[in-house]
Amino acid sequence: MAATNSMNGVPVWRPVGTTPLAAISPTPPAVTIVGGGPVGMTVALDLGRRGHRVVILNRLDFVPAGSKAICFSKRTLDIWNRLGVGAHMAEKGAVWNVGKVFWGDSADPIYSFDMLPVKHQQMPGFINLQQYHAEDILIDALAELPNVEIRWGHEVTGIEQDGKQAVLRVVTGGQEYRLETPWVIACDGSRSPVRHMLGMDFEGRVFEDNFLIADIKVKGDRPCERWFWFDPPFNRGRSALLHKQPDEVWRLDFQLGRDIDREACIRPENVAPYIRGMLGDGIEFEPEWYSVYTFQCRRMESFVHDRVIFAGDSAHLVSPFGARGCNGGVADADNLCWKLDLVLRGEAPESLIASYDYEAVVTADENILNSTRSTDFMSPVSQAVTAMRDAVLELAHQHAFARPFVNSGRLSTAVSYPGSPLNTPDEQGALWAGIPPGSVALDAPVADGWLLDHLSHGQFTLLSWHADIDAPAGVTHLRLEIMGDVEALVVARYDLERGSAYLIRPDQYVAARWRSPDARAVEAALGRAMGKK
Is the pTM of this model over 0.85? Predict the structure, then answer.
């Protein structure tokens, strides 16, 4: 088994040990993060690289193992690449772009899809990587920042706010201390103690179906692809899913139905028939982790509560189908950190944080909508609905037009914010086929590397094509003026004409674009994107 032992039922991947009180820094943090998972550590890495003093309070004193997040999307990899860890994640992970959908007894897929339809980008469509490996990579990156401190085995037991700061009660090794901090980012998971301390709850839908996760070690030369089955012979009337992970570990996921004996379902003798049914009677495997789960599609009404900001599973929950949980949480971190950075530096009003609430809620609602639809498609509630689902599968086998209606989990992609208060509308009468305000920038090769690498410095960027205009103070100007095969791809993807320009936010989202920009228009759009107008 991957876990060397367990503590209070939580499997241990790598012990770290409790941080003693004598070892903690007396320097007060600008931001305190509650929770040491991938989302909390991504927040810490982003803010830490921007120079802020950050403390992570992690109630665990080890890196947990077990069946947790494994699928990380291109957008998450782009974010991590901006923070200096994306290449390491992709190198360690199992890279895949192709998914296949199977139905019934056929050994051939009814169709396949490509998670990287736009080629010539630095990062792949997806990687599969055990969460504990991702956390190890993030921990190593944080260790290089002297202004970031992880306090292992420090549990928050109380919180108070006064409009200017929060005061946390923290317990470690039987001792309690108080920590004053201007901002708290709650990344403490689906059962968020911070959320409960503030008397908050989720709204949404709880599903009654049950699913079995079987992480196993098995040797073999199977392709690194996502395989999803509807009504396979080894799990009649239900679904199944197969993913490859590093270290010869595979994740198998089986729909079980309602009203099950959860303890019986994870007994090795009961799991083995599912595994052999999917992979073959003669397969030899070693169990890594078995668990049964149900899920919810719910969120908090709002994510910002005075000095406490919620991100990741503490703010919203989705089903695992579509890999929108951890990826959605990393998107929260990406959206929040540049805004909080500007507020901490006094360069933007605190009201800018309200745009995080708006945009993160839009993302959560998009993820919840897609997760709910996926579950409803995979788990029909009546014979009539099952017949309709099967008719869609039959059509998809023969006709491409029906394939978008097949829902085996709409996989995580970047969410757009067309209604964001930070967007500047296009010039009246301007015709565009590029990337609109509120959408994430698209990568492309440039003469000296990749476009997104030029948008990874944590500032606003003015991207122009032969535009006779200077960037405002504090804005990086990326001029594309040498026409070649590489630059032509950028020009095409952004629908650039001579004189055109884009203003791109620090999180690589488009804030504004112009066919004929002038300094006043760019300044106004910058002010709006910073929450000043």
Answer: yes
